[in-house]
Amino acid sequence: MPSTPLSPEKRAEAQALAQAIREATDTEIDQIAQVLVATGDADLFGQNEFKIRDLAHRIAAKAFEQHLARKKTATKAPA
Asked: What is the pLDDT of residue 3?
């Protein structure tokens, strides 16, 4: 969480980014849910834990991709 409240403009930007992240990671979230539902309590950790961790890392990577893509398109002057 940010230490200071976001301005209305930044809050709107954050909401748009959150929606883009949700759309980009829908498949990974579905896969996490499927792994959890298909896994018994005795087998929750170990290999299944690594599958879920890998999917979580993909979600984080896609979040960064979405953020950086917005930064590049927001540039008004040549870099």
From this structure: 75
